[in-house]
Design brief:
The structure is a single chain. The chain has 256 residues and is mainly alpha-helical. The chain folds into 2 domains: 183 residues, no CATH class; 44 residues. 79% of the residues lie in helices and 0% in strands. It is built from 9 helices and no strands. The longest helix is centred in the first third of the chain and has 47 residues. It is elongated, with a radius of gyration of 25 Å.
């Protein structure tokens, strides 16, 4: 039996493990309704069997919760990456003005609260880092804890480099600055790619509606053949329809 991965809640037991996403009741409801609506509508258009559509609504709703959870998790991961870049920018500015690491993190926390609010992901993480330092936990441990929970390669790399440089007396200011530039460049590339493929994604979403329209028109004209043959043909068409959409999504999902 596969052992479930243990959730990491940080040094003080109240942090976020970004490897997992816990949906609120409202999030689950939205995911269920979207999945149920889409699945029910597609099955009703293709087959016109109310019981089958009702079953599809339930199964589609359950699948919709899982899919929507993935969407929300990816959105949170992206927000964390953007906010982490801004944290490094503020930290780099503070270090550049001559402040030590401890004072720089305290000033960075104030900047992040002003920019994102004290309930934002990165402000909370910066607060935990400062709390750890104030309680005698060294900064390398706090950054390492954040990196392990972050599910982000950039944060993990920064933590490892910072730990080595800080213990060896390296130039922390340059490390923070270079890491910030690297993340910024990667985000710029991601945004450029998203702009390039956004048109194709819109075309895919439009084209995926066309089979539903065609099926509706054909049903209006009537069909010939046995009920079993018609049902099998529609089932095959539906499978092709779903596979084509999945392939299209995969082709337009470009990662850097």
């Amino acid at each position: 039996m596969k052992k479930e991965k243990e959730v990491n809640i940080g040094v003080f037991g109240d942090a976020i493990d970004y490897h997992v996403y816990y949906m609120s009741f409202g999030d689950k409801l939205v995911g269920f309704l979207l999945g149920a609506l889409i699945a029910g509508a597609v099955l009703q258009i293709f087959f016109g069997i109310l019981i089958l559509s009702a079953i599809g609504c339930v199964l589609g709703g359950l699948a919709g919760i899982k899919i929507y959870c993935g969407v929300l998790k990816r959105k949170r991961d992206r927000n964390l990456k953007i906010q982490f870049r801004d944290m490094l920018e503020s930290l780099s500015t503070s270090l550049g003005s001559g402040k030590n690491v401890k004072d720089s993190f305290e000033e960075t926390y104030s900047d992040l609260c002003s920019q994102y609010g004290d309930s934002s992901l990165i402000a909370r993480e910066c607060y935990l880092i400062n709390t750890g330092i104030a309680n005698g936990v060294n900064i390398e441990t706090m950054l390492s804890d954040f990196a392990k929970r972050s599910n982000n390669e950039d944060i993990e790399s920064f933590s490892e480099i910072f730990e080595v440089a800080n213990r060896a007396g390296g130039n922390i200011k340059n490390i923070v600055y270079e890491t910030k530039n690297m993340i910024s460049d990667r985000l710029d590339v991601e945004l450029e790619l998203e702009t390039m493929v956004s048109g194709k994604k819109n075309e895919l979403n439009i084209m995926i509606i066309m089979p539903l329209i065609v099926v509706t028109m054909i049903k209006g004209l009537g069909t010939s053949g046995t009920a079993m043959t018609v049902f099998a043909s529609k089932l095959i068409a539906l499978c092709i329809f779903v596979a084509a959409y999945a392939l299209g999504k995969k082709m337009t999902d470009i990662k850097v």
